[in-house]
Amino acid sequence: MKSANLTDTRLSSPFSWRGDSFPPILDSETPNHLERIRELGIPTIFDIHTHFFPETIMKLIWRWFDNVNWAIGYRLPELERVKRLHHNGIKHFTTLNYAHKKEMASSLNDWTYANYQNWEGAIPFGTFYPEESVLAYVKKAVETYGFRGFKLHCEVSKLNLNDPELSDTFRYLEQKEIPILIHTGTAPLPGEFTGIQFFLPFMETYPKLNVIVAHMGAHEISAYASLLGRFPNLALDTTMVFVDFLATGKETEVDAAIPLLETYQNQIYFGSDFPNIPYHLNHPISKLLDLPISDLAKQKILYQNAKNRFFK
Ligand SMILES: [Zn+2]
């Protein structure tokens, strides 16, 4: 798609933008954040929130985004997308996907396992869904496939974290210390089971579970962040929070969240939501680098925290 068309799409998005101009959507030849991260001693960026789906499902997802005028910055074939990550200094990234219904998660895991070795730098993540076979295929994903984490999407999957059908699986992952990245927040759209009122009882049931909350829990960032002191294995990802596109961040909420990055610098990960972002990757990275927080916090968020977790 030509960038002019994407600008039209962005103009008609129901989600608002900060400021009155859009960040570019196409990668520059040498993204200017590469020099900046080098100066900070960051060898490479670790993106905790990147999506990989089988082509047919990805196209359905893109159609959904098209219908809400959410421009897709990287609507490219899979291997081209991986090159774009590398081009932007992202040498480690996850393979997030999720099931929209029953009897889908296990085959998504099979697909990820069959393909992720073609994506240099990919950290394989699986998914699961409340259904009878869930513990069996999650064990297979961990013990046979060697997956390093799982992704759940409470809004799209209409998934209740407190569903008893998932409790054995959560206990298993808690004991194995395997992280689960969860879209539990109410942004960009609330769901039947999103929000802190579902998340808090879940954490109280599995207090040692390694959980990474997508989008910092927006639109309830402060409520989610208030749990970080109480649950040391809980973390947040910055995905789509400190950017000019305000689908997952309201201006006042985002500004109030900046000091949290300093306070909880060991429990925050950088995430982008690549490839489904209406701007190039330079934008979220530069915005994070521009924030008034310490260099140490930036190093940890962009690289070190994820490195410590996944390359022990
Ligand atoms: Zn996402």
From TrEMBL:
<keyword id="KW-0378">Hydrolase</keyword>
<dbReference type="GO" id="GO:0016787">
    <property type="term" value="F:hydrolase activity"/>
</dbReference>
<dbReference type="InterPro" id="IPR032465">
    <property type="entry name" value="ACMSD"/>
</dbReference>
<dbReference type="GO" id="GO:0016831">
    <property type="term" value="F:carboxy-lyase activity"/>
</dbReference>
<dbReference type="GO" id="GO:0005737">
    <property type="term" value="C:cytoplasm"/>
</dbReference>
<keyword id="KW-0456">Lyase</keyword>
<dbReference type="Pfam" id="PF04909">
    <property type="entry name" value="Amidohydro_2"/>
</dbReference>
<feature type="domain" description="Amidohydrolase-related">
    <location>
        <begin position="47"/>
        <end position="307"/>
    </location>
</feature>
<dbReference type="InterPro" id="IPR006680">
    <property type="entry name" value="Amidohydro-rel"/>
</dbReference>
<dbReference type="GO" id="GO:0019748">
    <property type="term" value="P:secondary metabolic process"/>
</dbReference>
<dbReference type="InterPro" id="IPR032466">
    <property type="entry name" value="Metal_Hydrolase"/>
</dbReference>
<protein>
    <submittedName>
        <fullName>Amidohydrolase</fullName>
    </submittedName>
</protein>
